[in-house]
Design brief:
CATH architecture of the largest domain: 3-Layer(aba) Sandwich
Bound molecules: adenosine-5'-diphosphate, magnesium ion
Largest sheet: 5 strands, parallel
Structural class: alpha/beta
Order of helices and strands: HHEEHEHHHEHEHHEHEHEHHHHHHHHHH
Shape: globular
Strand order of the largest sheet: 5-6-7-4-8
CATH class of the largest domain: Alpha Beta
Number of strands: 8
Number of helices: 21
Distance between the termini: 44 Å
Oligomer: single chain
């Protein structure tokens, strides 16, 4: 398997959670993980140009070092960029001229050489080809959603319309939506299938208003055979968008076009949704997906490993599946860390190795703790209230307590760096990361702080 790619993909997922999809799309998607020098602990990335490189170094170096470090199982590796033209010869195996160039350069060169004709841009499908029914593992937790999804590919628009699938994050909703799209396109090459996330839908709608292109926007959606809307809960509290969507829904529904939604809750529990739209969301079949049982988790792990041509032994699969894990995305993440570590360090995949790799991530299961509770305990222990913590005050003690609060939040809640930054009055994710690193440094030296933190943690989990 291509380890660096897998690690990079894993990093992108984490970055998405930590700093948001926009940052990932804008900056990290343009970058690739070129080499890992395990001896010198240097990660080599490749960026398309100087601008991207500088921006990433300036704003995201810490994020890269922390998370790639965790994935590679080393502490604070340094991150460096390969120069697009002068790569380190010893790191690149027989680079051809073409390999050294970024894609745009290659295209230009080929065009100059008359090798490629410039064709009109083909419309790109919105369907992800790798999410198909064949690689979706079915168990009691998802069998209803799977069966319904599969059935509608046979008779789009005729069986369950709309199909509404709901469940927690990372349980396979997006996978099933794309599988439906792929399934329908397999049966009918000419079918127009459109996949869109609700938040993109909202953005697109708003910009269509700004640029006076509402009609074109409406046309795009009304002219499809199958509409797949992911995470429809993001349409909450957006009255204008709901209005527009309501009309699109009616047109498609009346024409027997298939509509499929995914959401994190049932329609009844969605907040800020106009009644008439809510009732339509539940018109067809509402199918839930929940956390799989251990057998299904094991099957998913084995399937996933097999797709990397790795045969996963029972004891390892069982060990990974029985850890306290929130969803299938995390399950996959754990497997990838283990496989990547084995491959990078050229060791056999064994139970002992899996335990070693995952041990660190294996914090004991905790009840959900919210940010406010951390604030109130920090107040109790250190006397600063939330107003002070949120303020711009730079008093030394205050700064320390603020950093400590951020550290505790990241460690004890499931909030992202970005969430925590926002909570502290709109601070940047890098401020939060910096705070965490500061406290980690202090913790290495000060045992009394370790004791104090342990005490706060105990109080929190009570
Ligand atoms: P959601 O949209 O519900 O948050 P995703 O569809 O993105 O979740 O799934 C997260 C990851 O888990 C994806 O990589 C997906 O392929 C994988 N996954 C989820 N459910 C299954 C399953 N039943 N079988 C195989 N892979 C799965
Ligand atoms: Mg999803």
């Amino acid at each position: 398997m291509d380890v660096v790619h897998t690690i990079w993909d894993e990093f992108l997922k984490i970055a998405k959670e930590e700093v948001g999809i926009r940052v990932v799309e804008t900056w990290f998607k343009a970058v690739s993980f070129a080499q890992w020098d395990a001896e010198k602990k240097i990660i080599y990335l490749q960026a398309p140009n100087q601008f991207v490189r500088d921006w990433i170094q300036k704003n995201y170096h810490a994020l890269l070092s922390t998370h790639l470090g965790r994935l590679l199982h080393v502490e604070n590796p340094s991150v460096s960029f390969l120069n697009a033209v002068q790569e380190r010869a010893d790191l690149v195996v027989a680079p051809t001229q073409e390999m050294r160039m970024v894609p745009a350069q290659v295209a230009v060169q080929k065009r100059r050489a008359g090798l490629v004709r410039i064709s009109s841009p083909k419309k790109q499908s919105t369907i992800n080809k790798s999410y198909i029914f064949e690689n979706f593992v079915v168990g009691p937790s998802n069998s209803l959603a799977y069966a319904a999804a599969h059935a509608i590919t046979e008779k789009p628009g005729r069986l369950y319309n709309p199909l509404f699938m709901y469940g927690g994050s990372g349980l396979g909703k997006t996978h099933l939506l794309h599988a439906i799209g792929n399934g329908i396109q397999d049966q009918n090459k000419g079918a127009t299938v459109l996949y869109q996330t609700a938040d993109r839908f909202v953005t697109e709608f708003i910009s269509s208003i700004r640029f006076d292109k509402v009609e074109r926007f409406q046309e795009k959606y009304k002219n499809v055979d199958v509409l797949l809307i992911d995470d429809v809960q993001f349409i909450s509290h957006k009255e204008g968008t709901q209005e527009a969507f309501f009309h699109i829904f009616n047109v498609l529904y009346d024409a027997h076009k298939q509509i499929v939604f995914s959401s994190d809750t049932v329609p009844q529990d969605m907040q800020g949704i106009a009644e008439r739209l809510r009732s339509r969301l539940a018109w067809g079949l509402v199918a839930d997906i929940y956390m799989p049982d251990i057998e299904t988790k094991i099957a998913i792990l084995k399937r996933k490993a097999a797709s990397h041509t790795v045969v996963l032994a029972d004891d390892i699969a069982h060990f990974i599946a029985s850890r306290a894990i929130a969803n299938i995305r995390e399950l996959e993440g754990a497997l990838i860390r283990v496989m990547a570590f084995a491959s990078l360090t050229k060791q056999e995949l064994s139970l002992e190795l899996a335990q070693r790799v995952l041990q660190r991530a294996d914090a004991p299961e905790r009840p959900a703790i919210d940010l406010e509770r951390v604030v109130s305990l920090v107040h109790k222990h250190y006397g600063y209230d939330f107003k002070q913590l949120q303020s711009k005050g730079r008093d030394k003690d205050l700064v320390f307590v603020r950093q400590l609060a951020m550290f505790l939040m990241k460690r004890l809640t499931n909030k992202s760096l970005r969430d925590i930054g926002v909570f502290f009055g709109g601070r940047d994710h890098s401020t939060v990361l910096h705070a965490i690193e500061k406290i980690e440094q202090i913790l290495k030296k000060q045992t009394d702080l370790q004791v104090r933190i342990k005490k706060i943690e105990d109080e929190l989990s009570r």
